[in-house]
Write a structure and sequence with these properties.
This protein is mainly α. The chain is about 85% helix and about 0% strand. The protein contains 8 helices and no strands.
Amino acid sequence: MPFIAEKRVVEELEVEIPQPKKAKKDPIAAKVEMITDALQAENFEVAGSSTNRQMLVALAPTILSTPRDLRHSHQEQLGGMVTEVFEKEEARLQTQVAETQTKVDGVNAEFGVRRAAVEAAEAKLQAKGSQLKDNQVTLSADVGVTRNAEATVKETAEELTSLDETKTEHALAHEEALNVKNEGFTSLKEGTCDDSNVEKDHVKALVKFFKKIKADASLVAALPMALARKQAELSDFDSLAAVELEKLLESKIAVLAEQLKTTADALVQKVASKEAADAALDAAKKKQRVGAEAMLATKAEQKQLAADLSEKQEAVLEHQFETKSLQASHNERMVLLTFHQGLQTTLTELLERRTPVAEAPTEVPVPEEVVA
């Protein structure tokens, strides 16, 4: 037979061999074993020397396996001792749970305090941020005021310079007109000048001046004859021309004097405006400096508050680790206590167990046919 065919036959002949079933453990024995295991556990405290524990471990199976109604009085006493040991262990475990619960309550309360501190620090930091924004808005406005004040000072200074130059021009023009009148016109009109060359210079200066002020051309043409002649030689036209020239000169001097006064008054006012502008600029700069210092101070405070918040957040984080560790320890003790209380329930069941009462046999009815 080929190898493949042989293999198929073997596979077809293979059958699953059932494994032997494990015998079920007696439930009473299992419970007794739980109690003895607990008594032997290192974390189960038994008062006295190790002999006491060994004695309990040795006697417990016999006592607990025997129903209460079949125990000897000494066994009952020993059963009471086992119960007392378990009760003391429960009390110890309850004490440990109470201790960790107190600690848990304490750390939870501390966590609330630290969390409240974090929230307070966050509120302060947020308020400081709002204050910083207000400082920035105020400083921005102060900078705008300072720039406007600087522009006003610059404009006022330029106007002041222009007015000062105008005043100088008016003063020179007024002085020139007075000189023309006092040195040239008066001496020619009164005929007090004896030097013909000086007289010619005066005439030239007067002609130049009157042309400059745009006097009537006929008056300017008549000027040499009207002023250079002696009084007795003057014609009516010459006299009239001299009078008109003098009126024109006096009028020009008056106009120049008024311009000089107006310019001087304006200059005084502009000086006052310049001083006011300087004072406003100085005040604006001071206010801007105060605003800048306030903003810098707020920034420093914000930085400190951020550091404080970070420190408090770190403290909360560290406390959370501590809380979790303590809570884990508490939960472990709670589990141990719950487990021990379960063992106590089992112990009570074993100690109170009695021999089960056998059920009476059920009567089988006899058929009527058989009776008949």
